[in-house]
Design a protein that fits this description.
Two copies of one chain form a homodimer. Chain A has 336 residues and is an alpha+beta fold. Chain A folds into two domains: 174 residues, Ribosomal Protein S5, domain 2, CATH 3.30.230; 144 residues, 2-Layer Sandwich (Alpha-Beta Plaits), CATH 3.30.70.890. Helix content of chain A is 34%, strand content 27%. Chain A contains eight helices and 14 strands. In chain A, strands 1, 4, 5, 6, 7, 8, 9 and 14 form an eight-stranded mixed β-sheet that branches. The mean pLDDT of chain A is 94. At the A-B interface, helix 5, helix 6 and helix 7 of A face helix 5, helix 6 and helix 7 of B.
Amino acid sequence: MLMPSEITAEAPSNIALIKYWGAEDLGAVVPCNPSLSMTLDRCRSVCSASFFEGDRRPDEILLERDGALAPAPESFSRRIAAHLVRLRTAWNRQGTLRIATRNTFPAEAGIASSASGFTALTLAVSRALGIELAPAELSNWSRRSGSGSASRSAFGGYVQWPAPGTADAASAAPVADAEHWPLCDLVAIVSSSSKEVSSLEGHQRAATSPYFRRRLELVPGRLDTVREAIAGRDFARLADAVDEEAIDLHLIMMSSRPPIFYWRPATVAVLAEVRRLRREGLAVCATMDAGPNVHVLCEPQCAADAEAALRRVEGVEEVLADRTGTGPVWRQGAEL
Amino acid sequence: MLMPSEITAEAPSNIALIKYWGAEDLGAVVPCNPSLSMTLDRCRSVCSASFFEGDRRPDEILLERDGALAPAPESFSRRIAAHLVRLRTAWNRQGTLRIATRNTFPAEAGIASSASGFTALTLAVSRALGIELAPAELSNWSRRSGSGSASRSAFGGYVQWPAPGTADAASAAPVADAEHWPLCDLVAIVSSSSKEVSSLEGHQRAATSPYFRRRLELVPGRLDTVREAIAGRDFARLADAVDEEAIDLHLIMMSSRPPIFYWRPATVAVLAEVRRLRREGLAVCATMDAGPNVHVLCEPQCAADAEAALRRVEGVEEVLADRTGTGPVWRQGAEL
């Protein structure tokens, strides 16, 4: 038997400034609108993949929790297993995979770990299978895991996943790198329990909101504003667009049929505190993904004051301080 | 000198099930959409008006607070004074008015007191001036105070203020009386401080929401649903429409430019508790006006359980238990 090919990959999470919400084809992960995100630095997924060529044992999927590796829960394994089948079939390689994965940030803290997780998985597996993917190909394959946001975790800095129907919509592409404009992302954790409604379910319900079509008309202009704000490092301009976009996303959720309510009491308290800090002159703004936690973006010189203020908000369990980060990396060896 | 003509009138507040939000002409109080409300029973305004015919002293405007009458604050007096000028001019009567008013519910508790207040004022003043108004005329004159919702406080039970442009849009009209379907309204007070953005300002900003036009398309169908639910005493049907309408109103506010955020942390907690109670089988639903407090409508047999549950929600300062009520009344004499 050959020695296994062993790779460890790390991929960053990302926070969407313009949100992917609603799919034209959920199976093929074709979104209804373009999206744009900032890659994170500290919130990363680490994935080791070992490929045993020609082996016929079943794949092994392990997840680190509380410092120990254990077989991943059924619901988690199923999506990973489907992606492994997809990759191995596409590249026509027979053999067994051992996958071990962990997140550098609290699990189930309401921060999208599927984007970083599926990008790290795709990168580790491709390298273990001997496939060398260009970043755009990594983006495309990661996206096809079912996590559209994973398309954006293939790059550092600021990343756009174009509108469907455009020639390059299969994968995301960088807009600016991390050094162009380092910002901080203070993630105010107000609930670390699992969401009642999954993002996949939310994407399915999006078009049932009577306001969804109108939202799609608004996104391109807001996306342009965000791009211009990033190009010019204009925080006030970015903040207005990011605040609006985050509220819009949750308006669509709350007006879907049946409605989706992610906000907790402390979500509202954090949003009010961010508005207060802005009125006081701090360069801060707020965005939320499909969950109750609030990502508070700010310029680095405001981060200490903003973090202290957020920690004082009743109901905030924790504040994760992150910042603009670089793209995925990989190295030889199974570290997990 | 003649003896003054003295009248005391009482008028009910009302809670809108379909909301008046956005005006085609704010000065003339012409709304963008039809609205429909339930008249309340215990939340009432009491107004005594004394008319001193031919007298040339300035009008006196008194407000009861903490059990004592005192000159009303400037901002409050100004709107009342303008309405007194309007009424006296229309009916061509010269003389001085002494106005004294109080609410039977906590002042500034976030329950619209302008609807009940202006209807009680209009009724008391008209009678003190010797004018006998039919209910539709009372509705029309009360509305012209600047509080559109006052048009609906001229009647008991369930009351519709028709769409603008229709022949009868100047005044509201009853849809069903209180005995047809007695419901409870448990008002969960989460904040009794004054609103940061007035309803008048909110009406002005409504059309700046990119979703406002779409909302106007949705209202007629939802209004029909509410009317049918009332006609058939179908609480489940009423609840779905009322829940949707309340969320829609706040979506429009939160997407106005600049946005208006009325929700407090406990607003979200109460909304979540109402959804939980509904899932458990209680006939409850929630609506909110332009403020943070939540009106929890329910069938009378659910009221005790719902009230107990609401009192347990963190951040709920008080629960005012009200129910479907009758229209305004008046009597001789100045009681205040």
